[in-house]
Each structure stands twice: as structure tokens, then as C-alpha cells.
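Sequence in, structure out.
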Amino acid sequence: MFPHNDSVVGDHVDSETYPLGEKSEQSEATNAFALVALSHTPVEHRLYSAMLSVRKESPDTKTFTARSLMTLTGIGSLSTVRRGIEGLLLKMSISKDGNGEHKREQARAYVAYSPIEVISRRREVGGTSLTPYAHHENGNGTHAFDRAIARVADNSRLSRREAQVALCCVEGLTNADIGRRLSVSEQTVKFHLRNIFVKFGVKRRAELISRLLT
């Protein structure tokens, strides 16, 4: 589902690169994985997916270091891996292993949580399925935002990036804000918005937000 090269970061993102796929017949765990994937950048999700895959194949493997994740994912830049780890920590998808807190950074160990656990951890601190931070912009509470997430995830025509842009609109972010958050240009945001409007059958941002929240 996710490409294995560093070129996925920045403006060079194909709108069809990250399909969400059909949701109607998926299990709770698969739906949770799709929702958590929406919150990750491509590099973050590449790291996270690698950790989950190893734990599934080798249950005795509980922790990972930045160096081991470089080997697992094929990402050649330690700084890229570190940035991805920092993002996963902020999004509560992983945590530091207590036994590795005092080692140098590249040897520090990290533990990955299952998607269902990630969603639970985020909600425990007042956040949503998508983020550990509560959303109150435009009067939209956590439950309304979760409804928006569900509606975006249920639209199998959306790419992963389009889903992220749509949810940023619900948060009340401007095109410039969305571009900064997703590390893309405003023109790229506008391109994705045009596709999103078509796929939801709306003509403007206000209609999209109303469609997702009500």
C-alpha cells in the first residue's frame, strides 16, 4: 500500500499513491489500521508498518532502534528515521522503552502499539482517532470530528492524501496551513481539494465540511 522510497515526502505525491480501499467488509482491526495510517506521514507509516510486521512475524521482538528501523525499511538517512520516530512519538503510535532512555539516540529502543491501542491512547488524553489532540475549531468537538473521520474512511474513492486534506479542512485549516502541516505547496492542496469536491459531490469547502460533520 505504501511506497518504499524517500521521494514520497514533499510535493511529489501522486494523488493515487495511498488508496484507503474498501471499508464495508473490513474488520475492526483493519479499519483501525486505516484510520491510524491517515495520521502518519509516509515516512512515519513506513516505520510503523515495519514495526508491526516484525512483531507479527516474531512476537518475541518487542523493541526497535533507529538503526534497526533503517535496516528494516531501507531508509538510508538516519535523520529521516529520527524525524519519523519523533512524529510517531507525538502521535502516540509508539513510545520509548524505559530500559533504553539513557542510551544515545540511535541506540534508544521504541515500542509500537497496535492500531486499536493507538486509537485508545489518543482518546484517553482527549484526542480523536486521528490525532492525540482534541479539535475545537469552529465548535467541532471530538465526536463530530470522529464522524468526519469515519465518513472520509468510508469513501473508498479517496486517496490517502486526499483524506488527510479533507480532514484538515474540517479542522478549519487554510490551504496554507494544510500545506505546512502536510509539507506540500498550496497548489498541491488546491489540486487535492478539486478532486475531493468531485468525489464528495460538493462545489465548495463549506459544503464539504457540512457533508462530513452532519
